[in-house]
């Protein structure tokens, strides 16, 4: 799980790549469940599903998403 890829890393299997994929989807729909995000990521690349939690944490730290525990929803809060 690298934030910055190196010469040995698969570019599609990095936290940055998965974060980008998730952000595009969340930004488009505004609200998503984690299950929907996992299924979309599974359809995109089945090897990257283990990076969903670090990617969501990264987006949260950047202030782009919020998690609503009551409804189990991820909301886009960015600009």
Descriptive account of the structure:
- This protein has 79 residues and is α+β, with helices and mostly antiparallel strands.
- The chain has one domain (13-76): Arc Repressor Mutant, subunit A, CATH 1.10.10.10.
- 46% of the residues lie in helices and 14% in strands.
- The chain contains three helices and three strands; from the N terminus they run αβααββ.
- The protein has helices spanning 15-29, 34-44, 52-61; strands at 31-33, 65-68, 73-76.
- It has a three-stranded antiparallel beta sheet.
- A hairpin with a 4-residue loop joins strand 2 (65-68) and strand 3 (73-76).
- Helix 1 (15-29) crosses helix 3.
- The radius of gyration is 12 Å and the shape is globular.
- The model has no long low-confidence stretch (mean pLDDT 89).
Shape: globular
The total number of structural domains is 1
Q: Within the largest sheet, what's the order of strands? A: 1-3-2
Instruction: State the distance separating the first and last CA atoms.
Output: 27 Å
**How confident is the prediction overall: mean pLDDT?**
89
Binned, the helix content reads 40-55%
| Highest CATH level, the class | Mainly Alpha
CATH architecture: Orthogonal Bundle
The helix/strand order is HEHHEE
CATH homologous superfamily grouping: Winged helix-like DNA-binding domain superfamily/Winged helix DNA-binding domain
| Sequence stretches where pLDDT stays below 50 over 5 or more residues | none
Rg from C-alpha positions?
12 Å
Q: What structural class should be given to the helix and strand makeup?
A: alpha+beta
Helical segment tally?
3
Largest sheet: 3 strands, antiparallel
Which range does the strand content fall in? 5-15%
The CATH topology is what? Arc Repressor Mutant, subunit A
Q: State the total count of DSSP E strands.
A: 3
